[in-house]
UniProtKB/TrEMBL annotation:
Species assigned in the record: Paenibacillus azoreducens
Name of the protein this chain belongs to: N-acetyltransferase
Sequence ranges assigned to domain N-acetyltransferase in this UniProt record: 1-144
Single GO MF descriptor: acyltransferase activity, transferring groups other than amino-acyl groups
Domain of life: Bacteria
Length: 144
């Protein structure tokens, strides 16, 4: 297992994966994208979308089916959390499916109620989009 940071040449593969699962495409313009590999093969991807100098949204966490069960998502999310800290971000949001709430809690994410918390407007718009887009329920979390 290894993790590397995406380059422009990786974008076709990244966006092919995201297209398969209905996620928004990526670009390197305002994103830090990590690719996790297993035995030299691309096995998954995740990203930090930089909203401004102080805030980001972590998402797009996807492990290809044949590589699931190898703890690669754990390594990938840990890497993205470390990257967010090294960038000095003050707020990092995540919009996972509700069934993954406890997984993200292991990294310091806590559920946020957008009706009583101040949430970045772009994140709030995406959260509402996800509620409409996906059949599975989603939640809003923020790195504590």
């Amino acid at each position: 297992m290894a993790i590397r940071w995406a380059e422009n040449s990786d974008l076709p593969w990244i966006n092919e994966q995201y297209e398969k699962i209905g996620f928004v495409p990526s670009s390197l313009e305002r994103e830090e994208i990590a690719i996790v590999t297993h035995n030299g093969r691309n096995a998954g991807v995740g990203r930090l979308v930089l909203l401004n100098e102080k805030e980001a949204e972590m998402g797009g966490i996807y492990i290809l089916e044949q590589f699931r069960g190898l703890s690669l998502a754990h390594e990938l999310v840990g890497c993205l959390v470390d990257k967010s800290r090294s960038l000095g971000l003050e707020s990092v949001y995540c919009i996972p499916f509700r069934e993954l709430e406890h997984f993200y809690e292991k990294f310091g994410f806590a559920r946020v109620d957008p009706s009583i918390s101040s949430v970045n407007q772009k994140v709030l718009e995406k959260y509402n989009w996800c509620i409409r887009q996906y059949e599975k329920p989603v939640i809003l979390q923020k790195l504590a």
